[in-house]
Design brief:
The chain folds into 2 domains: 217 residues, Metalloenzyme, LuxS/M16 peptidase-like (Cytochrome Bc1 Complex, Chain A, domain 1, 2-Layer Sandwich), CATH 3.30.830.10; 185 residues, Cytochrome Bc1 Complex, Chain A, domain 1 (2-Layer Sandwich), CATH 3.30.830. The chain has a 7-stranded mixed beta sheet with strand order 1-2-3-7-4-6-5, with helices on both faces. The radius of gyration is 23 Å and the shape is globular. The protein has 454 residues and is of the alpha+beta class. The longest helix is centred in the middle third of the chain and has 19 residues. The relative contact order is 0.16. 40% of the residues lie in helices and 19% in strands.
């Protein structure tokens, strides 16, 4: 549980562990949000909702605690392949039935796969929520994965991989992950590769589906103009008689943070391509998502490269005009993380961009940031978080990620207080640690590795 984030409950019917009855709680929240409730079904599947009566829409998502890091090497891309296939038809609906049902009411559906989870979601008018629940639960619980659909979608995914290879600005991020994590699943492509996707069989994908998509691993979240009890009832009806209608079980715990992922020594990887622009990432292993320093990291990232007023943007773009795009970012996983600076520039300017970036990182590591930068970085963190809650989709995501990734839902006021509590010493101590680490380098452009041997 995230320290300082209390969950208050009312109306418990009995303990959730293996219960034969659904267990519902009202979670404490704050004036910036609606009423949040959580129900654990007997199967171990969790349903969370945030009722926002002022909205006329609802975002509904099914989140599965399965991502690309759960694949073995030969399975590379199975989670992403499955995400595509679940929209291809169930015992009740064809692929056209699925898309037409939601589009006929002006709604939208989509899905995405990450390294640690997969999400299927729909956004509809509040009056069409029963339809969205039935369709989305059907496709996640009861897809048939026909052989013909596997072959059709294999071709689509291979085209997606080829398209990704033609986007050097995207490719450099994958190259950087490989530089830091090597052959660990966190270092592999979410989509898989041509070598892993081409031979993958329907039997392998179906086995992955049924082993991994189980009720204890699933969180359903919805936000908007809704009634919690009605959502729970509709979900139970939609799942009745499907493979997700299982014996009593307890929800799966969040992904463990130990053992810590072993990263590679600092490395340089270059993908040689005749591009008009060089794409570069310079960075190092970061911190995991439950690290107490994550709030300080958010502030530090804002100061370094989180916006137009950041040090790197001002130095590299505004003062010298060396790059159009330059920013820093942090990625966090259950047991590891990344911190990196990205820049896209003319190949002839890459040496200068790297020199300036390294110098700025070293300066912040040695000297820290200023009080004015601390205040600005905290303001950016708080503002971006609150402004990000302006739509039902972001609120739905907040519910699911709180449950799936953190094991609780931190109230908005509590989160803002945690940012406010970050001190100059906190940020400077983290900067000295993080930015003093050996840096890995990933480059996509008209170079070979010998150009960076120094």
């Amino acid at each position: 549980m995230v320290p300082g984030a209390a969950r208050h409950a009312t109306g418990d019917t009995r303990s959730a562990g293996g219960s034969t009855r659904a267990v519902t709680r009202t979670l404490s929240d704050d004036p910036l949000g609606g009423t949040v409730r959580r129900t654990v079904l007997p199967s171990g599947l969790r349903v969370l909702t945030e009722a926002i009566p002022a909205m006329r829409s609802v975002s509904f998502g099914i989140w599965v605690a399965v991502g690309s890091r759960d694949e073995t090497g030969p399975q590379g891309g199975a989670a992403h392949f499955l995400e595509h296939l679940l929209f291809k038809g169930t015992r009740k609906r064809s692929a056209l039935d699925i898309s037409a049902a939601i589009e006929a009411v002006g709604g939208e559906t989509n899905a995405f796969t990450t390294k640690e989870y997969t999400c299927y979601y729909a956004r509809v008018l509040d009056e069409d929520l029963p339809l969205a629940i039935d369709v989305m639960c059907d496709l996640v619980a009861d897809s048939v994965l026909n052989d013909a659909d596997v072959e059709t979608e294999r071709g689509v995914i291979l085209e997606e991989i080829a398209m990704h290879d033609d986007e050097p600005g995207d490719e450099v991020h994958d190259l950087f992950a490989r530089a830091v994590y090597g052959d660990h699943p966190l270092g592999r492509l979410i989509s898989g590769t041509e070598e892993t996707v081409t031979p993958m069989t329907r039997r392998q994908i179906h086995g992955f589906y049924r082993r991994r998509y189980t009720p204890p691993q699933i969180v359903i979240a919805a936000a908007g103009n809704l009634d919690h009890a009605a959502v729970v009832k509709l979900v139970r009806q939609a799942l009745r008689g499907t493979p997700l209608d299982t014996d009593p079980a307890v929800p799966a715990p969040r992904r463990p943070a130990a053992p810590t992922v072993r990263t590679k020594p600092a490395a340089t990887l270059v993908e040689s391509k005749e591009t008009e622009q060089a794409h570069v990432l310079l960075g190092c292993p970061g911190i995991d998502r439950l690290d107490e320093r994550r709030f300080a990291l958010g502030v530090l990232n804002n100061v370094l490269g989180g916006g137009m007023s950041s040090r790197l943007f001002q130095e590299i773009r505004e003062r010298r005009g060396l790059a159009y795009s330059v920013y820093s970012y942090a990625s966090q996983y259950a047991d590891s993380g990344l911190f990196a600076v990205y820049a896209g520039c003319a190949p002839g300017k890459l040496d200068e961009v790297l020199e300036l970036t390294r110098a700025e990182l070293a300066r912040v590591a040695a000297e820290g940031i200023t009080g004015a930068e601390l205040a600005r970085g905290k303001g950016m963190s708080k503002g971006s978080f609150v402004l990000g809650l302006e739509d039902t989709g972001s609120r739905m995501s907040r519910l699911a990620k709180g449950e799936l990734l953190y094991g609780n839902l931190m109230p908005v006021d509590e989160l803002l207080a945690r940012v406010d509590a970050v001190t100059l010493d906190d940020v400077n101590a983290l900067a000295a640690d993080l930015l003093g680490r050996p840096m890995s380098l990933a480059v996509v452009g008209p170079f070979d590795e010998s150009a960076f041997s120094a």
